[in-house]
Design goal:
The structure holds two protein chains of two kinds. Chain A has helices at residues 3-30, 32-52, 82-89, 111-116, 143-150, 182-185; strands at residues 97-101, 107-109, 119-127, 133-142, 158-166, 175-181, 191-196, 199-200, 210-212, 225-231. Chain A is α+β, with helices and mostly antiparallel strands. Chain A has a single domain (3-248), classed as Alpha-Beta Complex (Sulfite Oxidase, Chain A, domain 2), CATH 3.90.420. The radius of gyration of chain A is 22 Å and the shape is elongated. Chain A starts with a helix and ends in a 25-residue tail after the last strand. In chain B, 57% of the residues lie in helices and 13% in strands. A four-stranded antiparallel beta sheet of chain B has the order 2-3-4-5. In chain B, helix 1 runs antiparallel to helix 2 (105-132) and helix 6 packs antiparallel against helix 9. The longest helix of chain B is centred in the middle third of the chain and has 28 residues, at 105-132. The chains are: A alpha+beta, B alpha+beta. At the A-B interface, helix 1, helix 2 and strand 4 of A face helix 1, helix 2, helix 7 and helix 9 of B. Chain B: It is a multi-pass membrane protein. Chain B: InterPro entries: Cyt_b561_bac/Ni-Hgenase, Di-haem_cyt_TM, Hydrogenase_cytochrome. Chain B: It is found in: Cell membrane. Chain B: One of its GO terms (biological process) is respiratory electron transport chain.
């Protein structure tokens, strides 16, 4: 075999092998059994992280000088729902946040109620699953005291956040939602944020209220929150994975 | 013709962990590029300065035709077909470099974190064994003699001429091997894990000092990317040297452990 021939042959073999390898990877990626194996690491990561770290630890808070002038708005940046648009036109004056499900006293809270509820301001880093980070100042009502006011029933284990936005054509199937457990719900930095960088929360960032659940990736910070439902399990809600992106393959535990 | 002598070059632990590492690092690299493609830009500091990334890949319009453009530190390069735009699609790295080949961040993350565990467990076994067995001390740390300028220079000249050690000398790693393997296993590979962990917001809250060590989360993402690039560079040189110094002999030694050496002239004649 001449040198040139051999090189051509090697090149073809190399291309063939890498092609095989890639299509094998794609095929593995589409097999439910392989996905289950790959996902098993997710449980391991969650358990190890929870073993090794304190879930009550605070996310770092930054100084005003660190605030991003270009905080990116991702996911939905507006809402098509007619009710929501009416509230938006009205400055959310008649808007009420519903807290129901497994609670003793269901609540309907206006923005004024939230503003007068115990709360705090925090300058934190928002980490999108895509890889970028922005720093913003959030002001909101602490979630814990609101839950205490509603009185969680003993079997309540998770909070489901129902949102006004949709990320797709189907208003039911593509409606945004998220869920967190009670440890995150009672974390001191978990807020129902109504202000960002000292201004009322802009629509593109989730007006009138978005969840801030620091120490987790961006998609957990549900925007346009309309209703908080206390549940025992989210198995029967929508895709059963506890959130819009979770139903589409992302981790419910969004700590990495 | 001089007869060759086979001797045991690599222990079982080195061979097994080596090949597991090949698998894990390949899949980590390709799934990592999938993750990178979700936001093909890098920054320094805690936050993204979207108008001033130090590297970004994207598409631009060149007289009605899309071209891939990679901007590094303000310098723009046309990289159509590889970076920014390939196979009719706007994407950072091309489909042949990512797992899965199509855009799917959720899957990329699943692969990445699965093989990250394999990489970590494999690495811990290797490091623990390397310390306990004396492998690092005996085989990987350069001797004082090897580090002498004269001997270093001699080794560089030999490598540049593709002349490799024969006979008894070939039984041990030469100084350039040691000086590239050691930083790889003790510095660069652990750095991949640490910068990776630094991107976890959950881990940041529990151990804030780590991400600060790298200068913030976006710096950690940048260092993760650069370190991955250095590992690719190492691998290219490594494979080139394997081929140059005897593909089959090297491959056999990493599979069966046996490496053939030609006895020195004095002994053979």
């Amino acid at each position: 075999m001449s040198d040139l021939n051999r090189r051509g042959w090697l090149r073809a073999a190399g291309l063939g092998l890498s092609g095989l390898w890639l299509s094998a990877c794609d095929r593995v990626n589409e097999s439910p059994a392989a996905t289950a194996v790959l996902s098993s690491a997710e449980g391991l990561t969650r358990r190890v992280q929870r073993l090794a770290t304190d879930r009550k630890a605070l996310a770092r808070e930054f100084s005003p000088a660190d605030i991003s002038p270009d905080f990116r708005a991702n996911g939905s940046t507006s809402v098509a729902d007619a009710d929501y648009l009416q509230h938006q036109a009205n400055g959310f004056a008649d808007w009420k946040l519903v807290v129901d499900g497994l609670v003793e006293r269901p609540l309907a809270l206006s923005l004024a109620d939230l503003r007068s509820a115990p709360g705090r301001s925090q300058i934190t880093r928002h980490d999108c699953v895509e890889g970028w980070s922005s720093i913003g100042k959030w002001t909101g009502a602490s979630l814990g005291p609101i839950l205490d006011r509603a009185g969680l029933k003993p079997n309540a284990r998770y909070l489901v956040f129902h949102c006004a936005d949709t990320l797709g054509p189907d208003p039911v199937r593509d409606g945004y939602y998220e869920s967190i457990d009670l440890i995150d719900a009672y974390h001191p930095q978990t807020l129902l944020a109504y202000a960002m960088n000292e201004e009322p929360l802009p629509v593109k960032h989730g007006a009138p209220v978005r969840l801030r659940v620091e120490r987790q990736l961006g998609y957990k910070h549900a925007k346009y929150v309309m209703r908080i439902e206390a549940v025992e399990s989210f198995d029967q809600i929508r895709g059963g994975k506890g959130g819009f992106w979770e139903d589409r393959g992302y981790e419910w535990y969004a700590g990495i | 013709m001089r007869s060759k002598v086979l001797y045991k070059r690599h222990s079982g632990v080195v061979r097994v962990t080596h090949w597991i590492n090949v698998l894990a690092l390949s899949l980590l690299l390709m799934s990592g590029l999938q993750i990178f493609n979700a936001h093909p830009a890098l920054y320094w500091g805690a936050k993204s300065t979207f108008s001033r990334p130090w590297i970004t890949m994207g598409a631009a319009d060149a007289r009605g035709r899309p071209v891939g453009v990679t901007v590094v530190a303000g310098e723009a390069f046309v990289t159509t077909g590889v970076l920014g735009y390939s196979k009719g699609e706007v994407r950072g790295f091309p489909s042949w470099a990512t797992i899965p080949s199509y855009r799917d961040l959720a899957s990329g993350r699943r692969w990445h974190f699965f093989f990250a565990w394999l990489f970590v467990i494999n690495g811990l076994v290797y490091l623990a064994w390397g310390v306990l067995s004396g492998h690092f001390r005996e085989d990987l740390f350069p001797t004082r003699q090897q580090l002498a300028i004269k001997s270093l220079w001699r080794e560089v000249v030999h490598h540049a001429r593709f002349r490799f050690a024969k006979g008894e000398e070939a039984r041990v790693y030469n100084v350039l091997q040691k000086l590239s393997y050691l930083p790889m296993v003790l510095l660069l590979l652990p750095l991949m894990l640490l910068t990776g962990l630094s991107m976890s917001p959950g881990f940041n809250a529990a151990a804030p000092w780590l991400v600060e060590l790298f200068g913030g989360r976006q710096s950690a993402r940048t260092v993760h990317f650069i370190s991955a690039g250095l590992i690719v560079l190492f691998t290219l040189v490594h494979v080139a040297m394997v081929v140059a110094s005897g593909t089959w002999n090297n491959l056999r030694s990493m599979i069966t452990g046996k490496y053939a050496i030609e006895p020195e002239k004095e002994a053979a004649e």
